[in-house]
Amino acid sequence: MAEAYDIPFPFTELSDRFCDDMDAPIQLIDGPEGDLYNGRWVSVRTLADRAYQHPIFGLHMQHQKPRYMVSFDNAEVLHDVIGPNAHPLGHQYETGYYFAWVTSQLGDDIRPKDQEYAIGLLACLVHDMGESEHKTIERIVGGTIGDIQTGQKTSNDKELERKINKYFYQEVFPDVHPSVIRRLEEIVSHDKEDLLHSIYEAAHVLQGLDTCINALWYDPALDRGVNYLQSDSREITDQRIDSFLKNHPWFESILEAFLQEKLYSNPDPLAA
């Protein structure tokens, strides 16, 4: 069995950074659209908890190969350097944190609210559930894909992941309103370029940058993975930032705020 990390469950114990954001409401099947007070609604926290504790998805992913493991020789070093972002579940939870942080930096005139915010947050928290390698998925859907490095997914990989996502929604969110499911899939499969998807992407960009910055604390001789994060991965991340900025000028001030926050807390690595 692949090396795993001991992440506590329920998953909300992983971090105390969410607070009230996790109580954002998601509409269920028989709840009238647009009405937060009449009908059936459930919190993002409840739905994400279902996914993280589901035996075919979250619980199984606890034991899958850590992210970035292909670039590291030692899993303990990887865990020390990258932290929760290396874990198949921790990465998704952390993406949710970055989504919440990016959204908090936006002006009131464009910041997503209520149901849209809840959908974006939930999408981040479960966006890689299609990477579960449970044997049931292979039997029912016809295959699994696991974690594939950014930019390496083929069209066949993407199509298979869509099928796995569909199975995930049916198994874990059978009572969630179809309009919510459609929006979740639009975001995680990059089907619709809108503000919510852009914030989702911004969260990933900052997450990757944060991982590279954290690696600057470590001696590259410690593990080839550290050297990878300080060189190749950082170059890829910088290119991704440049590309994202060209299409999303609002991201510049958010990137600035993020770097200032990192500079304040970790001055030496950023100065290196």
- Rg over C-alpha atoms, rounded to the nearest angstrom: 18 Å
The N- and C-terminal alpha carbons lie at a distance of: 38 Å
Question: What is the overall number of helices?
Answer: 13
Number of domains: 1
Strand content: under 5%
Look at the helices and sheets and give the structural class.
Answer: mainly alpha
User: Mean pLDDT score, rounded?
Assistant: 85
Q: What gross morphology would you assign? A: globular
Question: Unreliable stretches, pLDDT < 50, 5 or more residues?
Answer: 1-15, 267-272
Strand order of the biggest β-sheet: 1-2
Main sheet attributes: strand count, strand direction, barrel closure: 2 strands, antiparallel
Percentage of helical residues? 55-70%
Number of E-state strands: 2
Q: Give the ordered list of helices and strands.
A: EEHHHHHHHHHHHHH
Keywords:
272 residues; mainly alpha; two-stranded antiparallel ribbon; 56% helix; 2% strand; disordered N terminus
Quick take:
The protein is mainly alpha-helical.
Write the layout of secondary structure elements.
Blueprint: E1 25-27, E2 41-43, H1 44-52, H2 58-61, H3 75-82, H4 88-105, H5 114-126, H6 135-141, H7 155-172, H8 178-188, H9 195-215, H10 224-230, H11 232-247, H12 251-265, H13 267-271
Describe this structure in words.
The structure is a single chain. With 272 residues, the protein is mainly alpha-helical. The protein has one domain (11-271). Helix content is 56%, strand content 2%. It contains 13 helices and two strands, in the order ββααααααααααααα. It has helices at 44-52, 58-61, 75-82, 88-105, 114-126, 135-141, 155-172, 178-188, 195-215, 224-230, 232-247, 251-265, 267-271; strands at residues 25-27, 41-43. It has a two-stranded antiparallel ribbon with strand order 1-2. α4 (88-105) runs antiparallel to α5, α4 (88-105) crosses α9 (195-215) and α9 crosses α10. The radius of gyration is 18 Å and the shape is globular.
